[in-house]
Each structure stands twice: as structure tokens, then as C-alpha cells.
Amino acid sequence: MTLIDVWPLFGLVIRTPRLELRLPTDDELTRLAQVAADGVHEPTERPFLTPWAEQPPLDRARHVLRSAWSSRGEWQPGDWSLGLTVFVEADPIGMVWVSATEFAERREVSTASWLGLPHHRRGFGTEARLGALTLAFDHLGAAYATSEAFPDNAASVGVSTKLGYEPDGISRDVRDGEVLVSHRLRLGRERWERNDRSGIEVSGVEPCLSWFGVA
User: Fold this and answer.
1) Which residues form the N-acetyltransferase domain (predicted)?
2) CA-to-CA distance for 116 and 32, rounded, in angstroms?
């Protein structure tokens, strides 16, 4: 018996022209935690609800491990969050999350991501989300994908714009006692079909379908 026999999600792999997206081993997860410890955005910025810049490096690293482990332990076919590590060759550079609640009925996913600071502005964020959405739309049968971003998070908004997301209202969150407004964005299947994903390969999906609640 292998790990993939017990937990088929470890056999799910998405390959794009430059990236590989998959669940990491614990050793790879530790290396990814170091990427987060080294910083995911400039200290003067705060583009996420997670207080990356305010946390000490060790706390940032531990946050990465806790998030990955808890998402696996709490996985349910009707309520799941897939945290895929983004690799360039064999080096982890960030994460992209695909999450859903009642996916079999709603056919809707949400995405979130972060990259280590040295890997910004190289198109990796767009490529990673395109790969994750290829899994959701083309292999799991999603009808919609949503994303949220603060108005000053130009990188996230830019990725969404490139992939065809449209405005979908706002959401309100509390950070350090202050109410903040995020732009909500939505991508429908019709617009998704116009994206070029010819260079993307997804393998290992079939054994995982029941885990996503679609088999």
C-alpha cells in the first residue's frame, strides 16, 4: 500500500509550461514554509487578511504547515480546500488554493494564492491560477470560480482580469478591528472557455473524483 492508495490527492498533478502544482510531502512543505518565512510581499504592503508582514518569520512558517495539515484533516467531499504547492522545477515558490462547499450541487469554487517575494512579477501567479482553474472547470465540472481582492492588491486583480473574471459585488471583513472592503470577482464557464490552456496537463484526477463529491 502506498500513500497515494490511501490518500489519492497526492497523485493529483497539474503541469503548466513552467510550473507543477501538487500536494507537497512534509519535507517539501517545510521548504515551502521557509519561502513564506522569507516574505510573500513587501513589508510596507498588506494585500491579504493574513498578517504576513506583521508575523515573525517562524510564525509565518508555522502558519503554512498548520493550514496544509488542517485542510487535509478536515477534508470532506462536500466541504474541501485543496492547497497545491507551486513548484518551479523542484523548488517550491508558493501555494494556490481551490476550495468549495457543496460543490456537487453548487459547482462553484473559490481560489486564493501567494508566492514568495522573489517570484513576483514573472507571470507565475497567472499560470498557477490557470492551472488550478483547469482542474476545476475542465476536470471537476465547475460552473463558476470566484476570487476576492482588496482594491490595492493589483497583482491579484490583474490575474483575475487576464483570465476573464467580472465584478461580482463586494465583501466586508474585519482586520485588526477595522472593517475592510474587498472586490468580489466571478468567472463563468462561458468566459472560461475562451482561455488558452493548451499547454496544461492534469493527471491523477480519476481516483480523486469521489473526494471532490462528483463521482
Assistant:
1) 18-165
2) 9
Instruction: Summarize pLDDT for 87-110 with one digit per residue, the tens.
Output: 999 999 999 999 999 999 999 999
| Total domains present in the chain | 1
Residue 192 · residue 164 · CB < 8 Å: yes
In a domain, 126, yes or no: yes
Kindly state the cell numbers that stand for 182: 474587498
- Answer yes or no: are the C-beta atoms of 22 and 85 closer than 8 Å: yes
Q: Which domain holds residue 204?
A: 3-143+198-212
191: Cβ–Cβ under 8 A, 6 or more apart, which residues? Answer: 164, 166
CATH of the domain at 98: 3.40.630.30
For 12-39, the pLDDT digits (tens) are 999 999 999 999 999 999 999 999 999 8
Cβ–Cβ under 8 Å, residues 32 and 24:
yes
Residue 213: left if φ>0, alpha if ψ -120 to 50, beta else—which one?
A: left
Flag whether 168 is in a domain.
no
Q: Which of 159, 209, 158, 165 lies closest to 187, judged by CA? A: 165
Contact call for residues 96 and 130 (beta carbons, < 8 A):
no
The answer to whether the Cα torsion of 29, 30, 31, 33 is positive or negative is positive
Q: Retrieve residue 54's grid coordinates.
A: 506583521
pLDDT of residue 52: 62
> Which one-letter amino acid corresponds to residue 171?
S
Grid coordinates of 145: 470560480
Say which residue the cell 512534509 belongs to.
Answer: 26
